[in-house]
Amino acid sequence: MTRPRLFDEATVLGDAMNAFRRAGFAGISIKDLSDATGLTSGSIYNAFGDKEGLYRAAFGHYIDAVIRHRIETYIGEASDLDGLEQLFLSLLLPAPESGDLGCLLTNAAVEFGAQPSVASEGLAEGFAVLEAAIRQVVERQIGGGQVDLHVVRLLLLYQGILVLIRAGRDVSAGPAVIRSEFEQLRKLLP
Predict the structure, then answer these.
(1) Three-class secondary structure of residue 128 per DSSP
(2) pLDDT for 107-137, tens place per residue?
């Protein structure tokens, strides 16, 4: 019989998620994760198996708590270009809850690339969720034969913004670039 968990899993996963966002997978130890979550190393191993298990769980938490939440907040049921544009513009706003930790999806893509890794499933799921949300808006609003082209261009813009922010680059022209892109898309509205 397993012992019941004596910790709030969402809180622990949020703390671990932010620790991985800050340091990456390779840059963090079990001791660091213990300090970040308040769990003993034994509790981490008992609850998640190992560092990889905690990473996978924290990545899943990130997809639900951050990516899906942001999509629902900005796009929601309206599923229109205005909401999608607001999602893109929100990337440029300071995130008080996470400081300058960056996007775990983007950080993991940079850290691991396309090689099979502990992040493979999370990367596939995270990009699929993001791409599906963009595709839904583009198909609904614009349609036509170039949906794939528009979706890929928007995904490139989205991830490019996040990489530049994480790299500390000046993205002050970001709002103008995003608005210009969406002005071009609105010209395609039926």
Answers:
(1) helix
(2) 999 999 988 999 999 999 999 999 999 999 9
Residue among 119, 98, 121, 124 nearest 107 (CA): 119
Question: Which residue type occupies 43?
Answer: S
pLDDT band per the 50, 70, 90 thresholds, residue 144: confident
Phi, psi angle pair for 141, to nearest 5°: -90, -40
Question: What's the Cα-to-Cα distance from 82 to each of 74, 167, 179, rounded to whole Å?
Answer: 9, 28, 10
Residue 7: name the closest of 34, 28, 29 by CA.
34
Written as six digits, the tokens of 166 are 């994480």
What are the pLDDT digits (tens) for 151-175? 999 999 999 999 998 888 999 999 9
1-5, 91-95, 171-175: the lowest-pLDDT one: 1-5
Identify the three-state secondary structure at position 172: coil
Helical segments of 92-146, H only = 104-112, 120-141
Burial of 173 (0-12, 13-18, 19+ CB in 10 A): exposed
